[in-house]
Amino acid sequence: TGGKDRRSGLILTIPLCLEQTSMDELSVTLDYLLSIPSEKCKARGFTVIVDGRKSQWNVVKTVVLMLQNVVPAEVSLVCVVKPDEFWDKKVTHFCFWKEKDRLGFEVILVSANKLTRYIEPCQLTEDFGGTLTYDHMDWLNKRLVFEKFTKESTSLLDELALINNGSDKGTQQERERSIDLNFLPSVDPETVLQTGHELLSELQQRRFNGSDGGVSWSPMDDELLAQPQVMKLLDSLREQYTRYQEVCRQRSKRTQLEEIQQKVMQVVNWLEGPGSEQLRTQWGIGDSIRASQALQQKHEEIESQHSEWFAVYVELNQQIAALLNAGDEEDLVELKALQQQLSDVCYRQASQLEFRQNLLQAALEFHSVAQDLSQQLDGLLGMLCVDVAPADGASIQQTLKLLEEKLKSVDLGLQGLREKGQSLLDQISNQASWAYGKDVTIENKENVDHIQGVMEDMQLRKQRCEDMVDVRRLKMLQMVQLFKCEEDAAQAVEWLSELLDALLKTHIRLGDDAQETKVLLEKHRKFVDVAQSTYDYGRQLLQATVVLCQSLRCTSRSSGDTLPRLNRVWKQFTVTSEERVHRLETAVAFHSTAEKILQECPEQPDAFNEMEQFDEIEAVGKSLLDRLTVPVVYPDGSEQYFGSPSDMASAAEHIREKMKLVSLKKQQLKQPEATTPES
């Protein structure tokens, strides 16, 4: 445990248990434990504690007697820890103190709590009431590590010495044979060295830092003895391992150089042989996207095969560079020549692969653009082949805009096709630079003819579509004009209807005097002129639709209905306008005559030679009042009144007032005639 007696001798503890104790195993264990301390430590003697608290008296006695044969010279004191009061009678039959001379050491029976009379408490473990910290499993694990390290390092030292010594003597062939036979040690030197360093670090750490818990731990003599052994073995291992590494390096260098030479020739022979032959057979670009993709897939397979050899090239180049940095002078020339030869062949082959890949990619892009352009032309042609039957002018405008956009897209696509085609032709013209002396004129001519043929075909298709677009554009513009005329004609009908409605609802006043009525009559004539212009405009638009329909060879959907509507509204307006004119003219005659009569002086009776004028005014007034109550009758038999009944009543009331004034004037004129005979 690391505990010591008062003479600085080590304390050996033998814990016995209830199970059967094998004396042979115990003897072997004691021999092993007593072999650990140094001779100097053994000379100070041992104090043996036999813990018999859990064992039988016969076993304890046998163990004590066995110590005589195992360690008689080293044992100075044996303390038998007894159980309480169980052995008293049996001890009387055998007293160890009487056998001291025969045993060679003193034996005492003592209770666990009285063991401190012979040994200090700080040197006893907790099992015996002491304070010494001890972990038996930790001690055992470290002993196992130490012994494993000692065994492995000793064996490894012998193997390394045999390998190193075999490489230092004899001819080169003998050295190589020796190295071949003993080239790999039975254990990994790095692992053994790491184990030794970890073990040494653990021993040193426990020596100087103490145990866990802060209690100072006295290092065992076996550990003090183990440290120099571990250090010595580590030094020897490092020395032999360094020599072994140098031997391996030299051998690896020679082997590596031979392997590099062999691999370089393999790479060069394959690239200049099968690799070059694969590229010689690949010259086409395909006539479609699928064909180009198939050629690309084939090229990727070729590249994949080359990639394996290029990977070998990269590895070889790195190995050669490493050897050039650390190699001997006699190897430099050969290594540089190998490196130059390998680089030239690989770079040339890589350039050819890249050129072929770029060519196939350009061909794929060309065919892709050609296919897109072909689809655009098909879509444009399909759009042109469908008859135009839009619902209104806005949809025609939208269709026309879409047509122009498609045509512009076709122009851009054709321009892109020309650019891709020219770029592809330029690359094909440079194909002879890597043809390995093979005449590729015929193959290139086929590719060139195909590219030019595709571009010419697309140009012709595009030109045909442009011609059809021009015709369709003209037709659609005419249709736009047709719809515009129809819409404007319908609008003219609406305007004329609004004028008629305004005439009926707002043009109802007849004027308060002749002057105002004449102004209303003049305004009405202008109003009629506007309506006439609207009607003429609608007629012209409808005539234009007829001409456009004949040009487009189609039947207008709305002009057949619009013309009768226009004529019907115009007839209604004409009838209404004539009625309005008649009323205004009657009102002018009425107001003029009435005003003339009302303005004449009574002293001028000669102005009224005939009383018929009064009767005429009354007749005109009554006629005008009658017209105000009569509706306007249209040709279709329908009727319509001017304004509302209240409006008409107001106009009639004004006429009646003026008729009353005229009647009053008439009476005034009659009175002088009645008084003259009497006088």
From TrEMBL:
UniProt keywords, alphabetically: Repeat
- Supply the Gene3D superfamilies for this chain: 1.20.58.60
Q: Which residues form the CRAL-TRIO domain?
A: 1-136
Q: For this protein, what is any one GO molecular function term?
A: phosphatidylinositol-4,5-bisphosphate binding
* Membership in a protein family: Belongs to the SOLO family.
Q: What is this protein called?
A: SESD1 protein
Encoding gene (name): Sestd1
